[in-house]
Design a protein that fits this description.
With 439 residues, the protein is mainly β. The chain contains 4 helices and 33 strands.
């Protein structure tokens, strides 16, 4: 859609209608944050009460309606559409309506919401990894389309990427990313889930070079197919973790987990049929729903299955099975602590393992939660549940859609996305503070 808007800027008007499933997505302030985070330039209606949805008899996300210059509906499409097909369709319409003399050229005088964004060092940081061994803190500065490396004390060390969206390898300062999210650090090599480029990137921190290890830069239509890493299209890789020469990837766009074998330079399916939903069982038969966070604990992978508001696990062995710890399905969500099936989360995006418990970024509840992997007991650990930015004791601290969490030694680092900040939790003192990033 973004490519279409750029190409046909003087004749095409795009209006987004946001008919939200989750309560947090129905709040106008949160919709505004999403519009800025996604760098949208077109107007977006907050259809919180589904009035537009019902008026247009919509049945699925996404649905496209095509309206001619006279205001008449001339077409409808449910589901994703490849750019080329949309481009050809718009070209035919432009030719037709220009011949009829009803097409008015010229862009609309719109003021993008992102003009209101504060000038902060980070912009909508998505994921992060804190590494006690090297003393590094790596932050996916998603809104700036770059990656920032700092010390655990917040002192800046390296900035990776030009800060402009694109796909380019090379020296750190000239490389380009597009909405990077997950990061994994292995010695002096940093792996990045370059989400909007549908690619996996590698950064040699010592040599100062960025390379692409998987993906073509184009989005796979439907579930990707296994094959050579550099020539296989991926679908919105959102997070990754390294183990035994492989990258395990939360492939949010295809509702699957994938694995990239770095030695063989191959990618293949690891879990999920590609059907969106919640079904446990053998890993290749399971249903997942927009997995957006992944963590490693021995031979188990834990992942945040965001659209089902669940935390799930899968064994790495050939006979591995998917198991749900908490979460019930696509339309079962909330903010309920408890055990097992009684627990409700709301669109969690981040998960980490501290050696005893899973730490969950319960994103739309603006909280951090602790989940026992064996007991399935889940409790609120930090945050009031109200969006905001407040340091102090865990119970009174406030976050705003935290999306990433990582453990380094005794401290826990949180990517507090809508606050454009990194927060640090000290379990020993039971406090939260905002990390000061400085040169």
């Amino acid at each position: 859609m973004r490519r279409l808007e750029r190409k046909w800027a003087d004749v095409l008007v795009v209006i987004g209608v946001h008919s939200a499933k989750f309560p947090t997505e129905q709040e106008t302030a949160n919709v505004r944050q999403a519009v800025m985070r996604l760098s949208l330039d077109h107007p977006v209606i907050n259809d919180a009460e589904f009035q537009v949805w019902n008026l247009y008899a919509v049945r699925a996300w996404p649905t496209l309606f095509f309206i001619d210059p006279r205001g008449e509906i001339i077409g409808k499409h449910e589901g994703e559409v490849p750019f080329d097909a949309l481009d050809r369709f718009v070209a035919r319409l432009v030719q037709q309506y220009e011949a009829e003399g009803v097409l008015q050229r010229g862009p609309l005088p719109l003021a993008p919401e992102r003009a209101r964004l504060p000038d902060t060092l980070l912009r909508f940081p998505g994921k992060l990894v804190a590494d006690a061994a090297s003393g590094r803190l790596v932050i996916a500065d998603s809104g700036h389309h770059r990656v920032v490396v700092a010390g655990l004390d917040g002192r800046l060390q390296q900035v990776i990427g030009r800060g402009e969206p694109g796909l380019a390898d090379g020296p750190l300062a000239g490389a380009r990313f597009h909405g990077p999210q997950g990061v994994a650090l292995v010695g002096d090599t940093l792996y990045v889930a370059d989400t909007d480029n549908h690619a996996l990137r590698a950064v040699d921190l010592a040599a100062g070079q960025v390379t692409t290890v998987a993906g073509t830069g184009e989005q796979a239509l439907g579930p990707p197919e296994a094959g050579p890493a550099r020539t296989t299209a991926l679908n919105s890789p959102w997070d990754l973790v390294y183990a035994d020469g492989r990258l395990y990837v939360a492939m949010a766009g295809s509702h699957q987990l994938w694995v990239c074998d770095l030695d063989r330079q191959e990618v293949r399916l690891f879990a999920g049929t590609g059907r969106e939903g919640l079904r446990d069982g053998p890993r290749l038969d399971a249903w997942l729903a927009q997995p957006s966070g992944i963590a490693l604990a021995g031979d188990l992978l834990y992942f945040a299955d965001s659209e089902t508001s669940s935390i799930r696990s899968v064994e790495r062995g050939p006979q591995g099975a998917v198991r749900t710890l908490v979460g019930q399905g696509l339309f079962e969500f909330g903010d309920v602590d408890g055990v097992g099936d009684a627990v409700r989360l709301q669109h969690p995006i981040g998960v980490a393992y501290d050696g005893e418990a899973l730490l969950v970024a319960d994103t739309y509840n603006h909280k951090l939660k602790r989940l026992g992997p064996r007991t399935r007991a889940c409790t609120t650990w930090a945050g009031t549940g109200e969006p905001g930015h407040r340091d102090g004791p865990l119970a009174s601290a406030q976050f705003y859609e935290p999306s990433g969490v990582s453990v380094a030694g005794e401290l826990v680092y949180v990517a507090d996305t809508n606050n454009h900040a990194v927060r640090v939790i000290d379990p020993a003192t039971g406090t939260v503070r905002t990390l000061e990033l400085r040169a």
